[in-house]
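PROTOCOL LOG
Step 1. Enter all chains and additional molecules of the complex.
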Amino acid sequence: MISGFFGTVISLERAVALADPRAYLAPLAAALGALALVAAMPLAAMLLFVAAGLALLAASIAIFLRQRALFTLTQVFGAACWTVGNLLWLAGPPMSAAVPWWTGFLVLTIAGERLELSRFLPPSPFARTAFAVIVAAILGSLMVSIFLPRAGSAAQAAGLLALALWLARQDIARRTVRERGLTRFIAVCLLSGYAWLGAGAMLLLADGILPTPGARDAGLHAVLLGFVFSMVFGHAPIIFPAVTRAAMPYHWSFYVPLVLLQASLAIRIAGDLSGVADWRRLGGMANAAALLLFVLGTLAAVVRGKLAARGNRAGDPA
Amino acid sequence: MKSEIRPALRLPLLAAGFIALGLGVGAGLARMGWTFPLPDSRFIAWHGR
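Step 2. Run joint prediction.
Step 3. Record the structure below.
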């Protein structure tokens, strides 16, 4: 899911931003890798994902060279993490060695994006330095995870916790949550995502210090499902129209998958930690329903946008 | 030479990404004991232990 879905979508968004046809090699390779998985050709898929990672890294470096800034550098590190994670997957078991790197890919990509958008409420020099230190600590923990997986995992969790606190403190969402409509919806997504990042990091940190049954699964899903998908839900009404040129007008129903995601994840994590398998299964199924509702809601919003545009054109004086 | 790729050409890439999302979710559900048709049983291991 990380390489096939997020790899394709993130590298497609980066290619659109770069406006260079060569940058489309990354989403093309990632999409072909996803199709190779469907065709049960794992080796081809792994090789394509490695190629996609390298192409995204090249595109991210090109963007950094155009605009030398902390947020573009953070996204270069994110792309590098995806590449290393894919190489570790290709290198063979244990696959768990790739997970911290894939987590780094998503977290650093999102953090870089939020830092870019913080230009509307610029962080102080101290806050920017703190951000750079946190990113360096996360990268350092990933290096450690290659040789000492448990210590690396605990160190990464500490870095993720610091990042969650930084984002919650610095993000403009704390102010925009008082607005209305789409602006408030995005802010609610961001703030709930930061809460899941913090909660997941604490679970992973606790598991790193004192292994607890279910804590690793709960922590990983809090980060990869709670944090990452809250961000996806919040950014979709901006990124999807930019990529597809299809308007996606705000509707109150955007909250339905978001609320279901939060509630179902809480049930699933409670099941993980308590060992009640039925809660875990029920929460997992409701997680899937939330993602399905998000996809259907996105398609419905695009149709609404097209109908509204057609109505406006019909109403225009000739 | 720099030029834009037409948005319509981006849709198949997005579609492949969403297929991967469906497979990932399905593998997660199968891991928890739900029945989900997967092209390869290794998907469950790839989703994680």
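Step 4. Note key features.
Chain B touches chain A at residues 1-5, 7, 10-14, 16-21, 23-25, 27-29, 32-34, 39-40, 42-43, 45-49 (CB under 8 Å).
The mean pLDDT of chain B is 84.
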